[in-house]
User: Which sequence fits this backbone?
């Protein structure tokens, strides 16, 4: 049987691990030229447009806009839309700075993004709005995900299909904004 006090210590340790991980990720040798800043437009729970560039949040995977999940009462809800809306509400008109790490096969600039020094990937994982992406070879946000799992927050309150291999839109410089708008319009139509 797990003692309450031991979970409290585990949560503190996981939070500390998350802060250390963010510092290491942020200082991972990227140059200032590899950054974009500006007001963010949320395309889905793990993809933004910042400074005119499509940016994927490093280390996390959120459900797609059309994905449904079950909550703690086994009731279906639009978990992908919930994640995207929560991120949009959290960001509002804030300036976001993203340090680009790489470009994925969909044309997204995979980046560690911060708002007032707050890592957005950690923010999503800690609230159970996204999963840690274990495919990256870096388990950067597993500690944050574990906090959400332990508290049964967001996705972890019920059941859901792993969003890791969900279908994605391919973005390129010429059609990034057009595709992003199309994705949002399709999701809102359904």
Assistant:
């Amino acid at each position: 049987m797990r003692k309450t006090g031991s979970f409290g210590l585990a949560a503190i340790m996981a939070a500390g691990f998350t802060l250390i991980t963010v510092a290491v990720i942020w200082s991972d040798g990227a140059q200032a030229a590899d950054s974009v800043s500006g007001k963010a437009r949320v395309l889905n729970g793990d993809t933004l447009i910042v400074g005119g560039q499509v940016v994927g949040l490093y280390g996390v995977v959120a459900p797609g806009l059309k994905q449904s999940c079950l909550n703690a009462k086994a009731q279906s809800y639009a978990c992908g839309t919930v994640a995207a809306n929560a991120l949009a509400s959290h960001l509002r008109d804030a300036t976001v700075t993203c340090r680009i790490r790489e470009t994925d096969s969909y044309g997204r600039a995979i980046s560690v993004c911060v708002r007032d020094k707050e890592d957005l990937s950690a923010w999503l994982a800690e609230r159970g709005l996204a999963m840690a992406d274990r495919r990256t070879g870096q388990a950067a946000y597993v500690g944050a995900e574990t906090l959400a799992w332990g508290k049964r927050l967001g996705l972890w309150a019920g059941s859901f299909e792993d969003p890791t291999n969900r279908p994605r839109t391919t973005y390129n410089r010429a059609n990034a904004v057009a595709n992003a708008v199309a994705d949002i319009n399709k999701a809102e139509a359904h």
